[in-house]
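Predict structure. Chain length: 363.
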Amino acid sequence: MSEHLLDRIYEAAFVPDLWADALEAVAKTHGCAAGAIGAWNDLQMPIGFRSTALTKPAVESYMHGHKGKGSPRFAALHAVQEARFTRVESLLTDDALNEDPIQISLRNIGIESQAATAITMPSGDLVCISFERFKEDGAFDEALLDALGALRPHFARAGLVSARLGLERAEATVSAMRTMGLPAAVMSANGRVLITNALLDAMPTTFLPSSHGGLAINDVDANRLFQDVIATSKSREEPVVRSIPVASAEGRDAIVIHLLPLRRAAHEIFSGGDLLIVATAVRANALVPSPAILMGLFDLTPAEVKLAIALASGRSVQQAALEANVTNSSARTYLDRIFRKTGTHQQSQLVALLKSAQPFVAS
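Prediction complete.
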């Protein structure tokens, strides 16, 4: 995965005018003609959008036009529960596609195929990312969908910040942290806290000061993952986990902690900081079904979520495989993928981590 592309994505989180360039870079790298990002709040009202030049008129009509608001494309994409990019044309009938306003607009500029993903944030915000291909280049194949899917966790975290900022530019550290309306802290590459906002300061039972001006989480499993990310960020390597669940406890609600690298212009906006820490509460919202929380945290597939929940409920891998009607070999393959995605190495570590996320999982 190109570090240059990731830098562009995380930079655009704080400088939304750069989303068009970031999306263009991703599109060109993956043989696409265009790309777009749109955000909605928990009432499904549009927050804003950014797009590459080619598709900007179509996306603008979709986001703000009365026809686009009721588009079957919108409903179909939101109904997809997989944490991956999906061919939108596979979700609709031919008749629905032929009547869909955005499909008509795309066809008018030579585009036939679109891959998109809807990402539900624990806060209730919704972010959609799409990429388009010219008709002569063919539809999105599985390899291309997987390649875009590898970027999905980064789009999710960058999209969270963009949505909270209303897709407006963060002009300065203090104003940006106030505008986000979420508990936040900026840290240096060596793990020292540079600035916190009042919302994070008001969570002393969750965020604890540590040695050398650092920060710790008042939860053993969450803090282990948190410190791993801090340590990894020093070498500018991409950590396995960048979103961490913290279980509810006496005096505090369950939250999800997101960690975003501050790259390029974002590094300057935040006065030379290297890492932004943002906490979001998990809201009881119809847009946030319990499995989607696990998918959003770790980008697990539905099959991996089912196995993970079974393991957290005390079942063995063999029992979980039997219930899911898959072979033990397939279950082990899923487990290996879950290990990689959650940053754990043993089943006991995984179960401990998933139990910390139990407030987010339906019983």
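Summary: Confidence is low (pLDDT under 50) at residues 284-289, 358-363.
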